[in-house]
């Protein structure tokens, strides 16, 4: 059985920015009255940004060939 490991492709400043913006979107989704489908869309988007910030890996950046500077 093999384990899949992802190489982090986000620098620390971008990880912090994604986490903060994701939390802001999550908080805004619950505080601002809006249509239920839009609320769920914002919750999903905010949660994915927070997850990418914590993990340090962005699938879209990886597909685009983005590599961290070493």
UniProtKB/TrEMBL annotation:
Domain of life: Bacteria
Coiled-coil boundaries: none
Keywords: Membrane, Transmembrane, Transmembrane helix
Transmembrane segments: 16-34, 40-64
InterPro entries reported in the protein's UniProt record: YgaP-like_TM
Plastid recorded as keyword: no
Ranges where the Inner membrane protein YgaP-like transmembrane domain occurs: 7-67
Pfam families in UniProt: YgaP-like_TM
Name by which UniProt lists this protein: Inner membrane protein YgaP-like transmembrane domain-containing protein
Organism of this sequence: Caballeronia choica
């Amino acid at each position: 059985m093999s384990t899949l490991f992802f190489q982090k492709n986000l620098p620390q400043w971008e990880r912090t920015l994604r986490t903060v913006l994701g939390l802001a979107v999550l908080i805004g989704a619950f505080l601002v009255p809006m249509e239920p489908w839009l609320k769920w869309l914002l919750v999903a988007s905010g949660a994915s940004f927070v997850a990418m910030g914590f993990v340090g890996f962005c699938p879209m950046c990886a597909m685009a060939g983005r590599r961290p500077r070493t």
